[in-house]
Structures are given as C-alpha cells and as structure tokens.
Amino acid sequence: MNSSIPPGAADEQLEKGALSTTDIVFFVLAGVAPMGVVVAVLSLSVALGNGPGVPGTYLIAGVVLALFAAGYVQMSRRITNTGGFYTYAREGLGKAAGGAAACLALVTYNAGTIGIFGSLAYFSDVVAGQFGLHLGWATWAVVALAAVAALSYFEVTLSAKALAVLLAAEVLVLLAFDVAVLVHNGFHGFSLSVFRPSVVFGGGFGISLMLAFGSFAGFEATALYGEEAKNPRRSVPRATYLALAAITIFYLLTMWAAITSYGFSNAKAAAQADPQNFMFKAMASMLSQGMADVMAVLVVTSLFAAFLAFHCNTARYQFALARAGLLPHWLTRTHPRYGSPVAASALQLLLVAVVTAAFGLAGKDPYLGMGVSLFGFGVLGIVVLQAIAAASIVGFFLRRREGEPVLLAIVAPVLGGLGLVVGLVYMISNYSVLAAGTVKQLDYLPWLLPIAAVLGAVAAVTRHRNESVRRDQNDAIAGA
C-alpha cells in the first residue's frame, strides 16, 4: 500500500488508531447537517426548482456520487493521507495538479466553514429570540467559536462523540416526521410520480440539482481521517459507502414525506408562499407545534455540528498542506498528548473570526450577507475538487492498477466525473441563485477558483524545481 505519509517528526503526525468506522461516519453525516438541509435547502429546492421532482433529483445526485465514490474508495485503500483531494490529485495527475487541488481545497473548505458559521450565528439568535433570549448574533458567534475551539483542541474522539449526540437528536426527530406522514397518508400516499422523468427534468431541474449536490457536500471527508482511523484500509471505504447511502436514503425519504404531507400538486405552491416555514408547518400538522419548536432548536445544533465537522476537515487540510511544504511549517504542530492539529485549527478559527468580524463591522447580515454566499462558493469548489479527484483516480489506476476491478477503478469514476461536470455546469449557471446574498461583489467569487488553481500549480512546480536544484547542489558538494 502506498501510504503517502511523510516520515516527519512526532509533532507532524496525527493520532493513530483513534477513530472507528462509526466515528468517521458521524463526522461526515454531521458535516452535511441533515436538519439544516431539510429545513433550509428543501424548501428552496421545491420553491425555486422542480417542485415535487426534488426526491428524484436527490436520487440522481446520489447515483452520480456513488459512481465517484467507487473509485474514491479504491484509491483510499492505496493511499492513506489526511491531504484528501490534494494527495489524490498529486498521485494521479502530477505535482502541478496536486498544487492546484491544494490551493482550491484551502480556499473552498475555509469558505464553506465560514459560511456555515455565519448561518449558525444568525439562526442561533433567531431561535433564542423565540424563547425570549435576545443577546444578538455576535454573542452566539463567540459562544460557538469557543465551543468548537475547545472540542477541536482535545482528542479527535471527543468531537466524534459530540457529533454523534447532536446527529442522533436531529435524525430521530426527522424520522418521527417521516413515520407520522406514513401513518397519516399510508403507503399509497407516497406518489411514485416524484420519480417520473417529466417531473424530475421539468422546469427548475438545474436549480434542484445544484442544491442537491450542495446537500451532499462533505461526504468525501472520510479520506481526511485515514491517518487517524483504526484500520484505514477498511474504515475509510466502509465509512464512505455507509455515509453516502445514509445521506441519500435519508434525504430522499424525508423530502418525499414532506412533498406527501402537502400533496403532490400543492407542495410547490406551499413552498413558494412561505419557504422559511415550509418544513415547520409540515412538522406541526403531522405531529405538533411542540415538535416544530424542537425542530427549530435542532436546526441550530445541526449547524453547530456542521461547523465543527467542517472546521475539523479544514484544519486537517491545512495541516497536510503544511507538512507537504505548501504552507508554513509551524502549522504541522500537533498537541503532544491528544494528537490534534492545534496550530492549523487555531489559524482556521482565527480566519473565521476575522472574516465574520469584517462582515459585522460592515453591517452585513451574517446569513444572507455572508453565510449563503460563502457556503455556496464552498460547495461549488468542492464539486470542482470532486471532478478533479475523479480524473486523478482514473489517471492513477491507468498507470498503477494492481488487481483493482476495471469497473470500480476506472469506469465508475469516469461516469461519476462526467456527472459531476454536468452538475458543475448547472451550478455555475445558477450560482447567482445559490449565492443570493446582500453583498453583490460575492457573486464574483467563482472567479477565485481558477485563480487559486493556477497559483497552487505554480507554487507546487516551483517548489519541486527548487528541491531538485538543492538536491543537485548537495550531490555536487558530496561528490567533491
């Protein structure tokens, strides 16, 4: 197996054997924020997209990502490195591609993390206000930042346990909603028309597909925890398949239930009339207003879990890039006891605080002004990275296939990559909808992606050339 882990000093290594398959799955599922997606994204997808065809759209997204995951899993068995997309691109397409992916990942994951944080601060204030606690979103932002700083400082299993508790609560409530709709409407109430091609590919399909890919953003983070997994050759593939299957089935059933609760013909009009309360009204009608209030609280805990998970992902990317020499070396510092990437984590949280403070001082809304736009940009970048990874996987196995099935190692990632490119076209053409914020300049954020890719590629090639020159000089000195 090609581990791709540089030897390095002790403080350049993460804690080995800390995470089980279940722990990694919790990181991924919490990162996709099921409650946040169902409440915030579902209503927009139904209202602005193909209406009752949303469940079918999520099925398409799940199939595309499953094809991508087939190759991704084969690659994870050969390469265990917290660098994720960066490592895959470097091994599959060369150092320039690796550098491009590194810079893209750095920009993308930081933007996504900051976007989630803005949404968390906003909704924390809104929900707290419903219970008479008016402290302002900035106060909740400080509380969330402090909590994530504490959790990410200690052993990674502590974060996994916290995510497990938060995830279980939101999943149980949504499953209760699904069951309530089933009891109320029966199996016959779940119309198969939601999967009819004419419905799925009807007006607004592009917007719904864009939001569907966004809802899966973060599932690929399983590979980031390979170094900390107890058995990475088994844990990472299992976690990837389990997480993707769980996300696809859960979203499909819950969104199908939501459509059913309003009626196939009425769902789109209801979402357009009141998108903010689309799911809350459905929950209140199927269960109770009390459960709708619980749902509101769990939207906040869901976003907190997503922020924690994305922060851990981003910190590990920064750690890996520093260890590879693409970021300052001090970012490789880990906690001597817990093995957590404390330096990379601290830098990431500092960036979150600075950007949030800048938006706040400018008087911009933390959700519409910062959250939606930056997370939308982050999602766009992640899909670009997935497409690059698909090409990298094919390139890697075309040269170094050692018994891996052609169907899984080459054919599946080719098909998945093509699906991702199609999704990417839809996302770029509809980005102004996804980033419908109050800061117009943020609509130009997608241009940062090609700029970041070029800068990363140049940096990687330059570093490789300089290393070659130094090696030649040292050889010359030794020969003399």
Automatic annotation (TrEMBL):
Q: How does it sit in the membrane?
A: Multi-pass membrane protein
Q: Describe the location of the Amino acid permease/ SLC12A domain by residue ranges.
A: 24-356
* Primary location recorded for the protein, binned into one broad class: membrane
Superkingdom in the source lineage: Bacteria
Query: Where does this one sit in the cell?
Result: Membrane
Keyword Electron transport applies: no
Say if the entry is tagged with keyword NADP: no
Q: Which residues cross the membrane?
A: 24-44, 56-75, 96-123, 135-156, 163-187, 199-219, 239-259, 290-310, 342-362, 374-398, 405-429, 444-462
Q: Which InterPro entries match?
A: AA-permease/SLC12A_dom (IPR004841), APC_superfamily (IPR050367)
Q: Which UniProt keywords apply?
A: Membrane, Transmembrane, Transmembrane helix
Instruction: From the Swiss-Prot or TrEMBL record, give the protein name.
Output: APC family permease
